[in-house]
């Protein structure tokens, strides 16, 4: 595929002739920066470090690829829109939003559809492509309307203080020790999908609600604790024959029979067609975690 450099479009206003005839004046200045410029990216390859700024709106068509050893940093307050089937392929490093250490929380970054009537699955999402990277992060971002918002393969970014909504799948973790902490994960078909038994992603202090499935789990090494599960069709679906031990999560109730209704495992032999392990979820948190979800 031929790679094109991005094109930068600015509206050009020609006033000189009008001023000479009628003496018109510029409009009153404003204190707020105007996002009056668009950066349009068509099948764009980053071969050197770049920083994207909140004064512009970035629109991605096709593939945005971050080459090995290259860093893309997207600053707080930036908006990135994705055209139909567009996606990001990360082979280098991706840093989105507020840095992880020593900085106050900044404005939200929005990663969203460019469709005027956005729907789940409009764009393909962000693929971390076997980078073995633990430096990448997302913090204070809203990621919405993707097929797989974050498809993390053999990479371990930190994702914290973010919102994932209206995606087909918010997270797909394969061979990943990623840290998924303090996020709001809601209104997705699947919140988190985990596979790969030899890794231990940490899924902690998230608010996981109103998803078709909160967590679809094939990695029984996953650390899943101190999360709030509420109003999902299934809070957790186990999809392997091995047992899964998780503890100290809030399930919207402390009654075992009620919790069991929202967990699919060996106890549901009447509706599953393959051998499954059992989810051991005790001890149960007695109340909702007030610090689960994004921090302000």
Short descriptors:
4% helix, mainly beta, 42% strand
Fold and architecture overview:
It is a single chain. By secondary structure, the chain is mainly β. The chain has one domain (33-280). Helix content is 4%, strand content 42%. The chain has helices spanning 16-22, 256-261, and strands spanning 7-9, 37-46, 50-52, 56-66, 71-74, 79-82, 87-90, 93-97, 109-113, 123-129, 137-139, 141-144, 146-153, 158-160, 163-165, 169-174, 179-181, 184-186, 190-195, 202-204, 207-209, 213-217, 223-225, 228-230, 234-238, 244-245, 263-264, 279-280. The chain has an 18-stranded mixed sheet that branches. It has an eight-stranded parallel sheet with strand order 3-5-8-11-14-17-20-23, with no helix packed on it. The radius of gyration is 22 Å and the shape is elongated. The protein starts with 6 loop residues before the first strand and ends in a 16-residue tail after the last strand. Residues 1-34 have low confidence and may be disordered.
Cα gyration radius (Å): 22 Å
Number of domains: 1
Q: State the share of residues found in helices, binned by percent.
A: under 10%
The helix-strand sequence is EHEEEEEEEEEEEEEEEEEEEEEEEEEHEE
Oligomer designation: single chain
- Provide the β-strand percentage band: 35-45%
Main sheet properties: 18 strands, mixed
State the helix count.
Answer: 2
């Amino acid at each position: 595929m031929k790679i094109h450099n991005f094109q930068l479009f600015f509206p050009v206003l020609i006033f000189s002739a009008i001023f000479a005839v009628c003496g018109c004046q510029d409009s009153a200045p404003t204190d707020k920066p105007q996002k009056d410029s668009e950066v349009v990216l068509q099948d764009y390859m980053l071969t050197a470090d770049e920083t994207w700024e909140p004064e512009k709106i970035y629109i991605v068509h096709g593939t945005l690829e971050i080459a090995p050893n290259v860093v893309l940093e997207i600053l707080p307050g930036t908006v990135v829109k994705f055209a139909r089937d567009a996606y990001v392929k990360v082979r280098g490093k991706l840093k989105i939003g507020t840095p992880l250490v020593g900085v106050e929380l900044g404005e939200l970054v929005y990663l969203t559809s460019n469709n005027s009537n956005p729907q789940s699955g409009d764009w393909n999402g962000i693929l971390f492509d076997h980078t073995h990277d633990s430096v990448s992060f997302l913090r204070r971002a809203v990621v919405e309307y993707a097929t797989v918002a974050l498809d993390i393969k053999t990479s371990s970014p930190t994702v914290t203080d973010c919102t994932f909504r209206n995606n087909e799948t918010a997270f797909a973790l394969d061979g990943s020790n990623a840290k998924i902490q303090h996020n709001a994960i809601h209104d997705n078909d699947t919140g988190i999908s985990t596979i790969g038994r030899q890794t231990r992603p940490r899924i902690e202090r998230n608010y996981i609600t109103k998803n078709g499935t909160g967590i679809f789990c094939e990695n029984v090494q996953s650390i899943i604790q101190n999360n709030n599960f509420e109003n999902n069709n299934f809070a957790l679906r186990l999809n392997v024959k091995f047992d899964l031990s998780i503890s100290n999560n809030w399930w919207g109730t402390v009654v075992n029979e009620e919790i069991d209704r929202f967990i699919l495992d060996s106890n549901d032999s009447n509706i599953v067609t393959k051998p499954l392990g059992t989810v051991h979820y005790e001890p149960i948190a007695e109340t909702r975690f007030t610090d689960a979800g994004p921090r302000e």
